[in-house]
Amino acid sequence: MRVARGYATTDQVAIGPAFLAVRATAGDRCPVMTPDPECELGRLAETVARSRAQLDHILLDVAGHARQEQLQILKTHCLLLADRRWEERPHALILDKGYSAEMAVRQTTLELIAHLQASDDPYLKERSVDIEQVAERILRNLGGDHGLDLAQVPNGAILVAHDLAPSEIIRMQPGKVAGIITDLGGPTSHMAIMARSLDIPALVGTENATQTIQSGELVVLDGRRGNAIATPDPSTLRYFHREQQREHAEERALGSLRDLPATTPDGVEIRLLANLELTREVRRMAHYGVQAVGLYRTEYLFTDATPPSEEEHYRAYRQLLHGCAPHPVTIRTVDLGTDKTAPILDVETEKNPALGFRGVRCCIAHRELFVPQLRALLRASAFGHLRILLPMVSTAAEVVAVRELLHVVAVELSEAHIPHAEQVELGAMIEVPSAALTCDHIARVADFLSIGTNDLVQYLMAADRTNEHVAYLTDPLHPAILRVIREVVRRADRQGVEVEVCGEMGGNPLVVPLLMGLGVKALSMSLAKVPHVKRIIRAVPYADAHRLAVAVLRMDETAPIRDRLERFYQDHLPEAAAASALKITLHAQ
Ligand code: PEP
Ligand code: MG
User: Fold this and answer.
1) Secondary structure class of 312 (helix, strand, coil)
2) What is the position in ligand 1's atom list of the atom closest to the CA of 275?
């Protein structure tokens, strides 16, 4: 029995065989010549066939939810791989020159690319990238190595990887993969957020899971304690099987809250909203009893080599607005940068990307990216109640600049007789210290404010949220964070503007009474958190929450604050706390 520790994205338990996914460097260390051409020919034929089958499988797998452009790329790869030249030319090179299969594929790739580059047709020239990607797949398969081809993860397995891009997690189907464990990442990294939104239990930032855990061995992902236990002994395994049964019973019980309001026993209503990453999640909202969207992150529309077209933006937004009408849908304009990189941004070259060209800064400068998004948003506004949210706002001037641009776009649409709503609310995220301290100025030019606690914690604590070595500092219960939230709510209140919280903190049932006591009246969270948060709201009189906040604001250390919140939770929801009979870690939320 071995244990790897990390930061869990949920307090659930997951059990399954480990599937170790190692990112292969295509063709690395491959032999150049072969003493056995017949054997190489066999390897080659088998590998090309396997690569074709993989691509067909991926295409089928993602057909229902991938973007048009992603499908197009996959189809192009299928067509390219169907070309007999992938077998004939390497075949000749193996027999005539004694090349290894890897070397023969590399040589063939170079020849095919040279051929395309000689063409005058820019479209054909661009296909070189596809040729390289197809070659990479064949080389990876020749190496007998598993690249991160997530289609290969068996049902019920726990995927163990060094790192995963949000665009890789997007392809996973909840219910298929039992859990994810990674070496890298912090609790609010986008890898973690994406796993949470797909309702896949994940443990990130273990530093060494890929070394500790072996492929095929049984693993328990214990979200409450943030542990991954490899090859548990029989009594440990029995314990976690019982825990899983208890969790299922709890989920069923929470289902009974679906149609009840999120109202405290003394009658104060807290608005609960959904954080969505993918448009397909809109179908799951009714199941969790939530009608409005507080944060739709649009970064995942930007995972391809080219930015989404206005039409692609429009289709996604219309689907959301239509699905939720007449309830409000808050769509955040694209927040690229840091771990939400996109191939279209050259963020690698920035020395300090988290402090660099991120969020609204990037949008204002890159009109060619931003205007199609704004046009699509306004066009979609005809289908429901749209609110636009700006990320990474540092000054009120940025909100004013976007409002002016939005006005220009609206006039253009009107002149072209394209329908759109007359008024669309424009909000600002409060996630940068300068915005927090001047939120009263920002509230004069914005229609609503939403606190992004993930970034607010990162920037107030000067601790990179993607870096597991400083994850211990990214604690939302640090007194500095709590004081700033209290200040933001107060200043916004004076301007008559409501404040929402849409960072991970807002979906943490232990912290929710404190946020209520600090005056927050709207919380946005990933769908699976909604029933847990609603249960605590219904159990806590507002007056108690207020007293809790007053007491906590007098405290100056994180640890006693955490103890206080745990005691408060146990006092108000003794059954839920006793059922788990465990200390619930804040990071686990
Ligand atoms: C936040 O920073 O809290 C937030 C909600 O935005 P993101 O996690 O996408 O940066
Ligand atoms: Mg943020």
Assistant:
1) helix
2) 5
